[in-house]
Amino acid sequence: MRVEREKLVLIGNGMAGVGTIEQILKLGGAYDITIFGSEPHPNYNRIMLSYVLEGSKSIEDIILNDRQWYEDNHITLHTGTTVVRIDEESRQVIADNGLSVSYDKVIIATGSNSFILPVPGSTKEGVVGFRDIADCDAMLAAAQQYRTAAVIGGGLLGLEAAKGLVNLGMDVTVVHLLEDLMERQLDHTASSMLQAELKRQGVKFAMGKQTVELTGEERVNGLRFSDGTELQADFVVMAVGIKPNTQLAKDSGITVNRGIVVNDYLQTSMENVYSVGECTEHRGTCYGLVAPLFEQGMVLAKHLCGAATQPYEGSVVATKLKISGVDVFSAGEFTETAEHTVISAKDEWKRTYKKILLKDNMIVGAVLFGDVTESASLQKLVKQGAEMTDEIYSEVMGTGCCGGGGAKQGMSVEAMADEEIVCGCNGVTKKAIVDAVTENGFTTVDEIKACTGATRSCGGCKPVVEQILQFVLGDSFQESAKAGICSCTTLSRDEIVAEITAKGLKTTKEVMNVLDWKQPEGCSKCRPAVNYYLGMIYPDTHEDEKESRFVNERMSANIQKDGTFTVVPRMYGGVTTPEDLKRIADVSIKYDVKVVKVTGGQRLDLIGVKKEDVPKVWEELDMPSGYAYAKSLRTVKTCVGNQFCRFGTQDSMGVGAMLERKYERLDFPAKFKMAVNGCPRNCAESCTKDIGIVGNDGGWEVFIGGNGGIKPRIADAFCKVKTDEELVEVCSAVMQYYRETGNYLERTSEWVERMGLENIQRVIMDNAENRKELAARIDFALAQVSDPWKKMLDDDNTRSALFEKANL
Amino acid sequence: MESTKLKYTLGTLQHFLPQIGRVVTCGPVELAIFRTSDDQFYAVENRSPHPKGGPLAEGIVSGYYLYDPLYDWKIDLRTGEVQAPDKGIVATFPVTVDGDNVNVIL
Ligand SMILES: Cc1cc2nc3c(=O)[nH]c(=O)nc-3n(C[C@H](O)[C@H](O)[C@H](O)COP(=O)(O)OP(=O)(O)OC[C@H]3O[C@@H](n4cnc5c(N)ncnc54)[C@H](O)[C@@H]3O)c2cc1C
Ligand code: SF4
Ligand code: FES
Predict the structure, then answer these.
(1) How far apart are CA A134 and CA A138, in angstroms?
(2) Which of A277, A344, A563, A625 is the most buried (most CB within 10 A)?
(3) Is the pLDDT of residue A410 over 80?
């Protein structure tokens, strides 16, 4: 027999509402839960839409709770269903499709809508807000089709949208009514620095412009401003603000101001009806960021579960702009008045700015630009309304006064309330983190991440998580924190490598047993790493462990999300022949390859080969493997060079192919890319390669540490050489030095920064002896490698174990 | 509607390399079979419980755990349970070894 539970209905399947439900479930609340959501999707992380637009995440990546989660928790979910009214008399919630559900308690969490300027033309085709997945899809689609876009609104959302559209290749102008961007978070100085930085990144600006009309026929084609000027645009994003979504509350007779009015326990004017999130107005404030919403949700969850809770008394908000290379932070008050004492520091050379506002010596606000390392501490200090002291001053203004810093930081986490949200993306409280440390004995950020989810999304909360760890663990923190390539060991990379050599350890198993791994067979992070270190130390004797390789390297092919594989044959220096192309075409047709794609590294991807066909595809191609799956040399991109180009001074194609042949197949800590150019016009883009080579009249110039990936970095000029022999020797030495000192998965862009360019130059350029030895060591290692597909095709047992599918 | 269970012979011991998964289709279900370093055998449905799905057989095996190849979720091969902070479950099937033969019951 089932006990009748109280019926709880949540209206609004967004971050605040579902966050509250998660808390209720954690607290063991005994409710029959029904959730309504207007959108067709399950609960997703709205703040990450900016990353979806920017292209670094897909919609699937940002789903917070999939449908299985609702099922697992016995929650009835109605997506694509909008609630139109709450009927107090019959205690029913009524939806637009006629569905009605009776309730004991209701939570309204309907969020906001984009505010669309009420100017003529704003309903034309090609005008969208930036709020939900549908808007994001519309922007992605528009970028495919149109070239010019205008984003109206220079706030957080507008700027993120603009940067996203620039990344998608559009010509974007941000139109802003005022002279300052993000004027609700930044002062004039920070704002103009921000504008300069974004200009550098390709965003255009029309400042001080009031839009009075959107022009065009059916579809928008431009904007007209109050000063009579016009701007052409095929697509317009309105990001001028949000409007709490209160229609349903109004129609149900609930008191509404700007938002749905609630008291300190989130109760609305209607009995048994609560409200959280952006649709809510508490003590006259509507919040538009997630951290306050989670704080509200926490109080409400406790209230609904009958647990003791403090009232909700409002939140201090902090903002961070999610655009790569633009670090902006602001918390609390930021525009100075006569009441404020202002501490500020502006560095025009480093392009950083820092400002702290005091009121009666209390820290009430802060703005940072360019360097936001202090953001976590400042956010806490503002939240606590801490008194400014000499220690805090020297700590946050960095006057180089040492001592006391660590202790002070510890104290500020100590003062943090248990319920305070540390990780805004995932709604993790200080208490949850402290519990993970004290109850489960976790000691590292990674373990905390695995257990609570904190730091898992944007990573902005990592400094605070570290401080909490430090505070709870005291001295034992240092030991565990500095070390540990993963949670299986407290040893660092260097310690592991030293132990392997000192103790003569030969297999991952031996390493893990002897060095006392917590998980005896390691995990997906350390097994591949240790396997690499062993191969690097014993190039001739180490037996590569297939079971310690990531899927791609184990199978010598790239897995795709549907479980098919991509095959990429080598094309030395990006050059192929008509015969090879013909063979590639024949095999692609025969095995029904889904897409043939030219890669960024000048070769052909054969995408979507069925697992069991992969060996046959390689056999019939009969070409060397391109190692597109491996942490090793991927491609050497080349320009046309002096063989054909009228500017060319060096044979870039020839040298590129020669280098690719020489260094292919060897394992590196991470993937490795090169480029060779015939002249300083640099058509093959050396500046974003691990090693970039640029020819000039008298020889070559070598650049290292470039990257075009997650963390773009322009390569540093490393040296100039005269002959091809010198060039090879320098490349060999750099590569081997990286192989010997790089952390597994560390790209050269990070490695160069960690080791220091000058240090690497000293090791390699100032010491000819050393350079020759490094080059000799890489030659020795290179002598051991062979094509994996040649081996795989001869080894029936492994090939069948890896690729064949038996059917019973 | 409990139907009778069937025993399928998946192959012999030498077909299964330690810590490397193998795919076998058994009637309607595609299985991923794993042999742990202590020579235990486990069978799970070859489908990641991650919302985006994908195969499991190509993951890294450590002890009785599998790290899935696409999203690095950690899954207990004995129970099929996904380890925190991720959530989910994979269907598991009992494996028996008699002599040289590896069998699954489903
Ligand atoms: C692109 C973007 C970037 C952002 N970046 C950040 C950031 O970096 N940091 C930050 O803190 N915040 C950020 N935000 C703001 C943050 O996403 C919101 O504050 C938060 O999502 C609000 O949560 P909510 O639950 O109140 O509303 P929502 O998440 O909007 O959820 C409300 C849901 O209710 C549904 N709904 C509405 N009416 C009804 C009805 N009558 N019946 C049924 N369902 C209904 C809606 O469809 C919606 O899905 C960003 C927002 C956007 C759009
Ligand atoms: S880099 Fe110089 S040599 Fe090479 S294609 Fe460009 S212009 Fe020609
Ligand atoms: S705040 Fe974004 S991951 Fe924690």
Answers:
(1) 6
(2) A277
(3) no
Supply the pTM of this predicted model. Answer: 0.55
For residue A806, the one-letter residue type is A
Given an 8 Å threshold on Cβ–Cβ distance, is A520 in contact with B16? no
Strands (E), A536-613: 558-559, 565-567, 595-598, 604-609
Query: Closest residue of B to A561, CA-based?
Result: B54
- Length of chain B as a residue count: 106
| Cα Rg, chain A, nearest whole Å | 30
Distances (CA, A) of A402 to A184, A399, A478: 35, 9, 18
A297 in Cβ contact with A23 (< 8 Å): yes
> Is B54 close to A563, i.e. CB distance below 8 A?
yes
Q: What's the complex ipTM? A: 0.89
The dihedral region occupied by A168, where left means phi > 0, alpha psi between -120 and 50, and beta the remainder, is alpha
Q: Is the CB of A454 under 6 A from ligand 3?
A: yes
Q: Which among A548, A561, A806 has the least Cβ separation from residue B25?
A: A806
Distance of CA A445 to the CA centre of its chain: 17
Query: Across the interface, do A546 and B20 touch by the CB < 8 Å criterion?
Result: yes
**Ligand 2 centre distance from Cα of residue A653 (Å):** 11
d(CA A36, CA A248): 13
> A687 pLDDT exceeds 50?
yes
Q: Which DSSP string do the residues of B65-84 spell out, in sequence order?
A: EEE-TTT--EEETTT-BBPT
What number is the average pLDDT over the span A98-120? Answer: 94
A62 vs B: CB within 8 A: no
Q: Are A490 and A453 in contact (CB under 8 A)?
A: no
Separation in Å, CA of A62 to nearest CA in chain B:
11
Which residues in chain A are contacts of B74 at CB distance < 8 A?
523
Q: Strands (DSSP E) along A460-504, which ranges?
A: none
> Is A212 buried (19+), middle (13-18) or exposed (0-12) by CB count in 10 A?
middle
- Separation CA A767–CA B57 (nearest Å): 49
pLDDT confidence band for A300 (50 / 70 / 90): very high
pLDDT at A404 exceeding the cut of 50? no
Cβ of A547 within 8 Å of Cβ of B84? The answer is no
| Helices marked H in A146-255 | 156-167, 188-200, 247-251
Token duo for residue A350 = 């480093």
User: With contact defined as beta carbons under 8 Å apart, do A714 and A700 qualify?
Assistant: no
Least CB–CB distance from A801: residue in B15, B52, B53: B15
How far is CA A318 from each of CA A63, A182, A295, A366, rounded to the nearest angstrom? 24, 13, 14, 9
Backbone φ and ψ for A708, nearest 5 degrees, come out as -110, 10
Q: Which residue has the higher pLDDT, A409 or A639?
A: A639
